[in-house]
Amino acid sequence: MVRGKIEIKKIENVTSRQVTFSKRRSGLFKKAHELSVLCDAQVAAIVFSQSGRLYEYSSSEMEKIIERYGKFSNDSFVAETPQVERYLQELKKEMDRMVKKIDLLEVHHRKLMGQGLGSCSVAELQEIDTQIEKSLRIVRSRKAELYAGQLEKLKEKERELLNERKRLREEQIRERLMRPVVPLTLQICDRGKTTEGGGSSDVETDLFIGLPVTRL
């Protein structure tokens, strides 16, 4: 028969709790004894009931096991404490070095801004002047690069506009050439004289297709 899974929580019924405590305590001590015998280990278990009663098991003398445990714990704590202290000291030293560096950088920055120069020697002022000149050269070089880049972009834009304008003009010319043109010239040539008194006169009309002919 398969046993159901027991939910691990406090048993509210006092009688059931005492029965369970007795069974589990006996099982715990049994497992401790088996571990001691099978693995040749020193095992100790201490249990206090809800009423404060002490139950214990030890594979050898309890006092010796407790004494060994206390010595091991103290040795471990003492062994780890110097390492922690050295680590904290190194952190403190590193923090002090960083604070000094920050202070020096702040002082140097103020000097570069022209502040606190009263305590500077001639050599320090010369060094500051050299650093400022170097910084100015770097700034000017970068500024020239940016201007050159902008100028190149403007030239490229100008070339694009000129090419677009040329393309549009070529398209206009191409459209004009492809447009069908049929020149038609109608010339009326008067040949004869008009008679006085409303008489009729002979008029000859000639139809020419082509360019007009210039007559001298």
UniProtKB/TrEMBL annotation:
- Pfam families for this protein: K-box (PF01486), SRF-TF (PF00319)
Major location (coarse):
nucleus
Q: Tell me which residues make up the K-box domain.
A: 88-179
Query: Would the keyword DNA-binding turn up in this protein's UniProt record?
Result: yes
Where do the MADS-box domain residues begin and end? 1-61
PROSITE patterns listed in its UniProt record? K_BOX, MADS_BOX_2
Known Gene3D superfamilies for this protein? Transcription factor, MADS-box
Q: Which SMART domains match?
A: MADS
Asked whether the UniProt record includes rRNA-binding among its keywords, one would answer no
Q: Which UniProt keywords apply?
A: Coiled coil, DNA-binding, Nucleus, Transcription, Transcription regulation
Subcellular location(s) per record? Nucleus
- Coiled coil feature spans: 144-174
Q: Which PANTHER family match?
A: SERUM RESPONSE FACTOR HOMOLOG (PTHR48019)
Name this protein carries in UniProt: MADS-box protein AGL71-like isoform X2
Q: Which organism's genome codes for this protein?
A: Camelina sativa (False flax)
